[in-house]
Amino acid sequence: MNLNIKYYVNQAEMVDAVTLPPNEDVNEWIALHVHVFTEIIKQMFLQVQQQCTCTHMTIQNIVYANEPAYDYISKQIEEIQKYLTDENIFPQQAGVPFSKSFLPVARTIFFKQLRVFGHFFLHDNQLQNQYLLPQHFKHFVLFTREYELLQMTDFDCLQSVIQTIM
Ligand SMILES: [Zn+2]
């Protein structure tokens, strides 16, 4: 799969980028974005490795896990990887139909990605300059909204951030 990670300079370009291209299967489109955002998160994680010394997995003042954020995120990425290599959920060949489990699993993955983005955004600010985090996060928010992949309430603890980037 050719993962083209693009940077969108303006809102219009980004809104365009989330629109389903003509003749594209919507599940195929969502699967592609699961891969793209996973790749972005993995690259950010590599960059933040030495710097994320947060003793708990937090977003704002909400504690999601009583373990270092680094360990938590590392496990989330492993779990996402496991899903991505499961051919019953992510068919490796074009034209193979997606199973009924695809959308629920995709939603689970987007939810994990949201937490990772949220933590990086709020607690590991060096990423903001190094890795265009606001642009990627904005793309993520637009995409998951467009295809209703997350609940509005999932974004609750990130409202202030979203207001600054949207
Ligand atoms: Zn951190």
From TrEMBL:
This is Mob1-like protein. Pfam families: Mob1_phocein. SUPFAM superfamilies: Mob1/phocein (SSF101152).
